[in-house]
Q: What sequence folds into this?
């Protein structure tokens, strides 16, 4: 199903003309309205008139998240919050690594965001009249409100459940018979786990599709979510700096995430050289907004690693598709000279039926060298089969054998040895939002 078929299936030559027109407007707008961009352009010896083709965007400078924080709170705004009737909403990141990232929206920006999310929900299979259960967090985090507005724009009945209180979430889904579920993949796993442990039949739910995002996740997680919740699990991507969730969305053909290119112009660059990469190669994802008033973003480096493809999808959509996020540049671990992403560790762990799909990677430095330990947990069924109902303090030989097998598979898959600790069931912290996969306990 399409929400805006004319745009979503637009021939690429027409789409590129529209992009070029909007890009020229965006560059001129940013140059005249934001002193930061004007200074950046002058430093790079370019002006909006330097753009003649889409490829000319390569001449323009990037913007990074540290620069957003340096200009906290409103230094990058083209429309100031005290401008009467202009800024209608502010969102912000948690600011766990310094000052928060503040983003603002005009009424026009909210409309663009709602349209993006409406397209995303329709892309997943949603339709007017559906009941949409939104279990993303509401508040300064953009997840909940983005899908909420998109659902209403599509014509769905939205349940603003927000995060937490899993028993109530299940009750609401049973009583309201929601077709769509919006949450993080890690929380979808928690919901599936709750159903299984409390012997709640899938038939009591009416879920058809899950719109899961806000964190990277693997195909192995997809299988577990689909089996555990009885739905088709699809990836949604977005980031507050660009607009929020809904920048791109996977369709049921699962051939990548459709980027709404009339609003968000993507690039893939080599993060080391900053040079553009050919189609299909994995690199850092960069976005330029094409319809944003409050904070126009010019070549924003997301830090996310993926690839792009431009072939028409089997669903009929013509916009570029991004592959699932491989990881983030700042989440990459360097273990004895080897680059390791949490998603690669997850892929190995989920090969083992004896393990629950919950883990944490703990970094420590007891002496000179860093020590990386993968903390995972055994399933209840495996634990009972080994120990029965007895409490256990010492490692059983079957548990030891499993641990050695996991370490071997990690070494074969990653090219580096990691420590592994298998914990009893329900000892890894569960997430009601984004899962905390890496815990850095090294001295600061």
A:
């Amino acid at each position: 199903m399409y929400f805006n078929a004319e745009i979503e299936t637009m021939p690429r030559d027409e789409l590129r003309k529209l992009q070029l027109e909007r890009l020229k407007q965006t560059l001129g707008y940013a140059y005249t309205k934001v002193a930061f961009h004007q200074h950046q352009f002058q430093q790079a010896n370019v002006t909006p008139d330097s753009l003649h083709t889409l490829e000319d965007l390569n001449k323009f400078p990037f913007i990074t998240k540290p620069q957003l924080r340096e200009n906290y709170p409103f230094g990058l705004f083209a429309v100031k919050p005290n401008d009467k009737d202009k800024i209608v909403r502010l969102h912000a990141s948690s600011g766990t690594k310094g000052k928060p990232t503040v983003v603002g929206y005009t009424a026009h920006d909210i409309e663009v965001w709602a349209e993006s999310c409406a397209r995303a929900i329709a892309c997943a299979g949603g339709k007017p009249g559906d009941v949409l259960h939104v279990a993303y967090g509401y508040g300064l985090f953009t997840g909940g409100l983005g899908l909420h507005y998109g659902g209403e724009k599509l014509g769905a009945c939205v349940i603003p459940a927000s995060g937490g209180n899993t028993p109530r979430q299940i009750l609401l889904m049973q009583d309201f018979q929601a077709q769509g579920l919006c949450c993080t993949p890690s929380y979808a796993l928690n919901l599936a786990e709750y159903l299984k442990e409390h012997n709640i039949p899938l038939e009591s739910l009416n879920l058809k599709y899950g719109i899961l995002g806000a964190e990277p996740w693997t195909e192995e997680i997809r299988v577990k979510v689909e089996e555990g919740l009885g739905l088709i699990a699809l990836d949604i991507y977005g980031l507050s700096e660009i607009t929020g969730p809904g920048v791109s969305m996977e369709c049921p053909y699962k051939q990548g995430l459709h980027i709404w290119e009339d609003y968000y112009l993507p690039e893939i660059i080599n993060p080391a050289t900053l040079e553009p990469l050919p189609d299909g190669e994995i690199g850092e994802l960069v976005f330029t907004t094409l319809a944003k008033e409050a904070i126009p973003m010019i070549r924003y480096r997301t830090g996310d690693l993926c690839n792009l493809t431009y072939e028409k999808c089997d669903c009929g959509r013509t916009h570029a598709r991004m592959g699932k996020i491989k990881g983030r540049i700042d989440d990459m671990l360097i273990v004895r000279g080897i680059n390791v992403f949490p998603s690669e560790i997850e892929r190995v762990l989920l090969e083992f039926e004896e393990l629950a799909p919950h883990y944490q990677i703990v970094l420590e430095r007891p002496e000179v060298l860093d020590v990386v330990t993968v903390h995972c947990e055994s399933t209840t069924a495996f634990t009972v089969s080994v120990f029965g109902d007895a409490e256990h303090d010492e490692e059983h030989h079957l548990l030891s054998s499993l641990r050695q097998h996991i370490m071997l598979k990690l070494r074969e898959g990653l090219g580096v040895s990691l420590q592994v600790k298998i914990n009893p069931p329900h000892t890894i912290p569960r997430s009601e939002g984004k899962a905390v996969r890496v815990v850095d306990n090294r001295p600061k």
